[in-house]
């Protein structure tokens, strides 16, 4: 009991001789038990006098009533035992007691992380801002408060940006937007130039020009879809960087009309190497692209900086055959050997095409689908796309065309008997193997499409026996009238 402990304490420490080890051990054990009982007493008084800060359901009065019921009945003298004069008094204040730790674990953190509605989140954000201003500069607590503020704003954005209510398809300014399903992809909004957080934000992508933006930025878009321009006006700017000057744009962005300047005040002016115009930093991200005008005139494939709109336009136009090299720059074939070889292969493929159209086996094998990515190769030999010129520069186009040419020639000359029967015999020398118009040592008459040996054709002053025979036949039909005419 507390009274007995006070009597023992008043008697003073136990006296024992140095030689009596057993008595010394007994005294030491008693002292340890006394310290343990004293600690339990202090802990019980702390629990009775303080409210648990984590228990929000129990008020101070209810806590006192519960503590009075659970605590044993003691007298007023025994309620607060006296402490020895040398020991500091244990007092309980209204504030949270210091338990010997440097951090305050019982105070409410900056920002309400358990807030569930928009109003509570806004209140928590304001409190977090005020705490950041009051905390010391560059302190650890201020850095933690900034991190809490970021999390609170992201959670507020998540509540403002509902995912389920947004439609899957939106059509704006000829854009056809589809709501994206991937949440782990990190993209950049083309409208506000900020990161799209796929985990907590809804975003859309245009299936035509691949324009990406937040759902909240859809109604702010002012740029029409680039694919509509490609469909209506499929042609390139063939002048190399046609610059007209920043003053001709009234010192404004060529796309969004924002004020720009070469000195970067209020915004930096960036030139697009394709259009020659100047754009702001929101419309020009220093993207690199190959300029068609430089390729056609200078055979230059070095990427240059272009605006976002020009980059999308060039990306959509890269596979479209809209370049007629013979008209734009006919001297290019004199300096680029790859183009001469490619032109010869394309001419041979056009001569092989009639065999495949009339051959049942070739139609069943779908040999012409070998060029399904370059359909213009089986239509003409003049039109080129920028992708064709890029592949010709790297050497991939000539290799793939050579393989296709070999496959087609093998079918006509060796595999198919019907195609072999459509060959020609040189009518000038009447010797040699069966000739085909795509052979390298042959010449083809432009009028009747007859095939001859090249040497034989030029040795006979380019006279075609088949054309002469057809001319005589036509003349004989006009000279000899039929029986109906004489009557």
Q: What does the secondary structure layout of this molecule look like, with pairings?
A:
Elements: H1 2-11, H2 21-49, H3 60-70, H4 76-79, H5 118-134, H6 140-160, E1 169-172, E2 175-179, E3 187-188, E4 195-196, E5 203-206, E6 212-214, H7 226-232, E7 270-271, E8 278-279, E9 287-289, H8 292-298, E10 304-306, H9 308-317, E11 323-324, H10 325-328, H11 332-335, H12 337-357, H13 360-365, E12 383-384, H14 386-394, H15 396-415, H16 417-420, E13 442-444, E14 451-453, H17 454-459, H18 465-479, H19 483-486
Antiparallel strand pairs: 1-2, 2-5, 3-4, 5-6, 7-8, 9-10, 11-12, 13-14
Helix pairs in contact: 5-6, 7-9, 12-15
Short description:
The chain has 487 residues and is an alpha+beta fold. It has helices at residues 2-11, 21-49, 60-70, 76-79, 118-134, 140-160, 226-232, 292-298, 308-317, 325-328, 332-335, 337-357, 360-365, 386-394, 396-415, 417-420, 454-459, 465-479, 483-486; strands at residues 169-172, 175-179, 187-188, 195-196, 203-206, 212-214, 270-271, 278-279, 287-289, 304-306, 323-324, 383-384, 442-444, 451-453.
Describe it for me?
By secondary structure, this protein is an alpha+beta fold. Helix content is 43%, strand content 8%. It has 5 domains: 118-159; 169-227, Wheat Germ Agglutinin (Isolectin 2), domain 1; 234-318, 2-Layer Sandwich (Herpes Virus-1); 320-422, no CATH class; 425-476, no CATH class. It has helices at 2-11, 21-49, 60-70, 76-79, 118-134, 140-160, 226-232, 292-298, 308-317, 325-328, 332-335, 337-357, 360-365, 386-394, 396-415, 417-420, 454-459, 465-479, 483-486, and strands at 169-172, 175-179, 187-188, 195-196, 203-206, 212-214, 270-271, 278-279, 287-289, 304-306, 323-324, 383-384, 442-444, 451-453. The strands form 6 sheets. Strands 1-2-5-6 form a 4-stranded antiparallel beta sheet, with no helix packed on it. It has a two-stranded antiparallel ribbon with strand order 3-4. The protein is elongated and about 140 Å long. One of its GO terms (molecular function) is zinc ion binding.
């Amino acid at each position: 009991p507390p009274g007995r402990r006070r009597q023992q304490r008043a008697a003073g420490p136990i006296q024992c001789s140095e030689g009596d080890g057993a008595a010394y051990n007994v005294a030491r054990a008693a002292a340890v038990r006394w310290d343990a009982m004293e600690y339990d007493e202090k802990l019980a008084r702390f629990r009775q006098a303080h409210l648990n800060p984590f228990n929000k359901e129990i008020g101070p009065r209810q806590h006192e009533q519960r503590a009075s019921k659970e605590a044993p009945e003691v007298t007023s003298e025994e309620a607060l035992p006296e402490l020895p004069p040398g020991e500091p008094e244990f007092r309980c204040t209204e504030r949270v007691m210091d338990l010997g730790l440097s951090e305050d674990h019982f105070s409410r953190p900056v920002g309400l992380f358990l807030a569930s509605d928009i109003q509570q989140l806004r209140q928590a954000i304001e409190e977090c801002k005020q705490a950041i201003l009051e905390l010391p500069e560059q302190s650890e607590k201020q850095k933690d408060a900034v991190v809490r503020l970021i999390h609170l704003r992201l959670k507020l954005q998540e509540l403002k940006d509902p995912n389920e209510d947004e439609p899957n398809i939106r059509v704006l300014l000829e854009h056809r937007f589809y709501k994206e399903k991937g949440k782990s992809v990190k993209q950049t909004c083309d409208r506000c130039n900020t990161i799209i957080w796929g985990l907590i934000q809804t975003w859309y992508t245009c299936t035509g020009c691949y324009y990406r933006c937040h759902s909240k930025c859809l109604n702010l878009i002012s740029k029409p879809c680039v694919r509509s321009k490609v469909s209506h006006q499929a042609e390139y700017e063939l002048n190399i960087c046609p610059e007209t000057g920043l003053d001709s744009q009234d010192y404004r962005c060529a796309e969004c009309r924002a004020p720009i300047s070469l000195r970067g005040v209020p915004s930096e002016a960036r030139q697009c190497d394709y259009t020659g115009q100047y754009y702001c930093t929101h419309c020009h991200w220093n993207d690199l692209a190959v300029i068609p005008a430089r390729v056609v005139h200078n055979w230059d494939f070095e990427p240059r900086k272009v605006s976002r709109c020009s980059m999308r336009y060039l990306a959509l136009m890269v596979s479209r055959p809209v370049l007629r090299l013979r008209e734009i720059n006919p001297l290019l074939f004199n300096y680029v050997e790859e183009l001469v070889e490619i032109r010869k292969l394309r001419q041979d493929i056009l001569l092989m095409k009639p065999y495949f159209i009339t051959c049942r086996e070739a139609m069943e094998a779908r040999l012409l689908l070998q060029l399904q990515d370059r359909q213009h190769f089986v239509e003409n030999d003049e039109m080129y796309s920028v992708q064709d010129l890029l592949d010709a520069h790297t050497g991939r186009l000539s290799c793939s065309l050579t393989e296709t040419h070999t496959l087609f020639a093998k079918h006509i000359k060796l595999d198919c008997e019907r195609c072999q029967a459509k060959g020609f015999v040189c009518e000038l020398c009447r010797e040699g193997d069966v000739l085909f118009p795509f052979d390298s040592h042959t010449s083809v008459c432009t009028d009747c499409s007859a095939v001859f040996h090249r040497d034989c054709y030029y040795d006979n002053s380019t006279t075609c026996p088949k054309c002469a025979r057809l001319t005589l036949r036509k003349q004989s039909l006009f000279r000899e009238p039929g029986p109906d005419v004489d009557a």
